[in-house]
Amino acid sequence: MIAERDWYETIPFAHGIALVHEPWMTPSHRCNCWHVRGRDRDLVVDAGLGHFPLRRNVPLLRERPVVLLVSHTHFDHVGGAAEFEERLVHPAEAAVLERPEHGATLFAH
User: Fold this and answer.
1) What is the DSSP letter of 49?
2) Burial class (CB in 10 A: 0-12, 13-18, 19+), 31
3) With respect to CATH, is domain 4-90 assigned 3.60.15.10?
């Protein structure tokens, strides 16, 4: 079993850009979340599975205000979305982000 504190990995890529991902998940069930440092606030692209709280376990996401941009509403991209006050998504998928359901997020038991 993987401990909550070890669930996420942060990999710096370039000045102000880092990959945040869940290395313990198979590639077909994880997404690459990106953190981009801005002047006044930061941007996170996608929010992972949400198995463990993203913001609580990734210190980079607790330093400054953060806006979440969801690329699309598959389950592996929106799991942690509820942790962010400001969430952006394409208008065609706004209802799914507001009320994610298994069929709409491509999640099946």
Assistant:
1) -
2) buried
3) yes
| Ranges of each domain in the chain | 4-90
Q: How far apart are CA 75 and CA 93, in angstroms?
A: 13
Residue with tokens 């598959």: 74
Share of the chain above pLDDT 90, in %: 71
pLDDT in tens, 33-85: 999 999 999 999 999 999 999 999 999 999 899 999 999 998 889 999 999 99
- pLDDT for position 91: 96
Report yes or no on whether pTM surpasses 0.85: yes
The Cα-based distances of 6 to 2, 23, 28 in angstroms read: 7, 9, 20
Residue count of the chain: 109
d(CA 8, CA 100): 23
Q: Residues 62, 43: contact at Cβ < 8 Å?
A: no
- Please compute Rg for the chain using Cα positions: 13
